[in-house]
Amino acid sequence: CKHTIAAEHAHRCEMVREKYKYVIPFRELRIQDVPKVGGKNASLGEMVAGLAEAGVSVPDGFATTADAYWHFLHANEGLLEDMRNLLEGAEGAKLHRNVREFEERGKKLRQMVRAAKVPQDLVDEIKDMYAELTKLAGMDEDSEGAYVAVRSSATAEDLPNASFAGQQDSFLHVHGVKELIERWVDCCASLFTARAITYRHDMGFDHMAVALSVGVQIMVRSDTGSSGVMFTLDPESGFKDVVLVQGIYGLGENIVQGRVGPDEFLVHKPTLKQGFKPLVRKQCGPKEMRMVYNAEKRTLVNLSVPDRERRRLSVTDEEVLLLARWGMQIEEHYGNKPMDIEWAKDGDTGNLYIVQARPETIHSRSDINVYRQYTRKKEQKIPIEVLAEGIAVGNNIGYGAVRVIESPKQIDQFQPGEILVTSITDPAWDPILKDAGAIITERGGRTSHAAIVAREMGIPAIVGAEGARKSLSDGMEITVSCCEGDRGKIYKGRVDFSVVEIDVRTLKETKTKIMLNIARPDKALAAASLPCDGVGLCRMEFVFADHIGIHPLALTRFGLMPKDVQLKINKMMEGHGPYQQPQDFFVDMLAQGVGTLVAAFYPRPVILRMSDLKTNEYAQLVGGSLFEPKEENPMIGWRGASRYYHKDYKEGFMLEVEAVKKIREEFGLTNLKVMIPFCRTPEEGKKSNRHDGGGRS
Q1: CA distances for 155 relative to 213, 214, 427, angstroms
Q2: pTM to 2 decimals?
């Protein structure tokens, strides 16, 4: 049985230190072993050994050490000296911006490493440990071996001040000793890609002082399931009381490289810890492709995801909550440091796993006491024209001339200060990204390669900007704005913004309580860092318009709606749910929109003003014109409290009440307080607090 296999494996691990010089099982590693096996492998060992009993599932494996890397290079006479000479030339080429020579030298370095012979004693140790891993995976000893992931882990990787994420290569679904040794060598060679050399140069690391460890880990069949990333803070604002989970179908390479737009989920940590289910935001991403393993060709391929599957979420609510709990456990285990985590769901078994965890390196180094507020100036020299939109990364603004580049082979065309526009980026683009005035990609999400690099370098970026390459052309002067909420905007010409920078430590405490007036959930996490006592006014109608857009009665009476209205509503509900009835969509979306805002300020009070749209504004919602009277002066008409108890709207108000109940009872956000607006008389206030003959609402 599996328990017996695990026990036998643990016993064998006791003997490996004496038996092996160059390989170490994960369960023997701790975070202090970074100099031996790099940050990635040390972290995997720490989790396997320290979190398994707590229920966090991490696939087992082993690591080759830094000594194995040096043993490999020293065993090939003259190799190190030749590598030093080429690296010195590469540094000179980089300083003179000779991109082609720089890349050519990197290519020669990789060829030299791949041509080198792996010492037999190292091959034997890898072979022995792979056989042990095959047994642990429950496979027959006579088989070709377990399917494994082979991951690079540089000894300067995943440090608090430098992540090195994606700089070296990793390989998935590796099978058999021969292929394992070949991929091991490829990992060593990838220490000398142009992107890796550039990153070490920019971060001040000596090329010949950085060694490479390689992790070999039992493969999770996420190609038949799903995978993604998770941050134990909000990666944009640095807000620490949430876990951000992103997911796609298939292997995780597509989300890391930004090839697809992921689903996104936000979980509130304090109330999750209390036992509630605070999944305060769910957003369905396009998930255009699924990377799978083709066993016949022994290669990875990308397949298009059918539209029907794209409209479904890649993981269930319960799975998201479980991942968030694991994220919190990992964060706590690492001394409450924010973490950047990769996860995978095995499609064959349905089990979830953590496959990587590293310290978050952006906000851990930023000054959380400094608040910057950008405002677009009312007086502009040119008319405002938005050319494209996407997901904003950071909170900054960039100006400059457009440079559209289709492939990293063309990066020598790029000039410092230009705004890079392309489909997606991967680490091959790194030599020019730090010189960009801004970055725009048509694909990718908040955790794509372009987004991660932009945050690390402090460069404004907009990802997932569909159609940007058509809207923008070389030489065009544009403004890239990432300071207006979740949606980044690309303006024609130079649009002027003012910026106010405040060090909150210099503000004096007031005797009067200061509360904010805020209505946009996408601004809440950043605004929560302001020194305030909560939110004095949150207007529900803004969430109505931005998150729902459908008249409540068009959902409660969906079956009576004209076919064109039903089709429009069904289209708007795609990517959400599934829901048992249409009105559940309204409750869920309203709870998410308001819940995100309330979670941001927890436990400080948030006063929510129930809906106060006027009849002409309700009529503009989908299906609204079928229910709203035409009034000469809607300002003093049928609005606020007078609607709540009225027979013609009461069922709509009850959906609002259900959303409030969900926020307080399911999410656990008891800091939410409710205000009844436009209440003309005390009697009207009493009526709006009761329904159906006096039962409490």
Answers
A1: 7, 10, 19
A2: 0.85
